[in-house]
Design brief:
Length: 225
Amino acid sequence: MVSNIFSNIFGASPVRPLQKHMGIVTDCVSQLTPYFEAVLQQDWSQAKSIYKSIRKQEREADKVKKELRMNLPKGMMLPVSRRDLLELLTMQDNVANKAKDIAGLILGRKMQFPEVIRERLLEFVARCINTCEQANTTVNELDELVETGFKGSELQLVEAMIEKLDEIESETDKFQISIRSSLYKIEKDLQPVDVIFLYSIIESVGEVADISQRVGSRLQLLLAR
């Protein structure tokens, strides 16, 4: 594998820890579905339990991030640019941070979501999670890309994965527009401060998909170099 090929020449490969980090990030984000289900049922005990799990995995991702940063070789040749790796790592970490922030804000305010947007909201959350999952799938091909020298059929496969990632993220934009439109129609019947936080949560959920898509964009830049 890639670590065996490059360990003696370039030092320990940072690719596997990067993939491990993205896997933890994806596990963290995937908990938003049961979290929102608990919130919509106003089951705050369950919501709190899931939030603690989200926070725990976000911290685990932070730990892996810090270890990778500290152990990334300096002054040595790497299979990919040190700067690109660090920027990709930061982008991945931002996805988990956003999931934790969403869950924390909702729990802190014990937010209630209007009936008219609930079903669409769960679909929106699920599709945003799909975006993160697709980003994870793409990052998991990075070791194979390094082995093949960023060319051939493996490069074409990853480019197709990134294109699929862009498509899923585009779908989340449509969900977001639809939910905001439904909320706009009833916002006069809600407390103004509640409306502000509802729009904020909708925007933040969309950012989970946006940042996940940027992980793919960062990989695409890496491929171009």
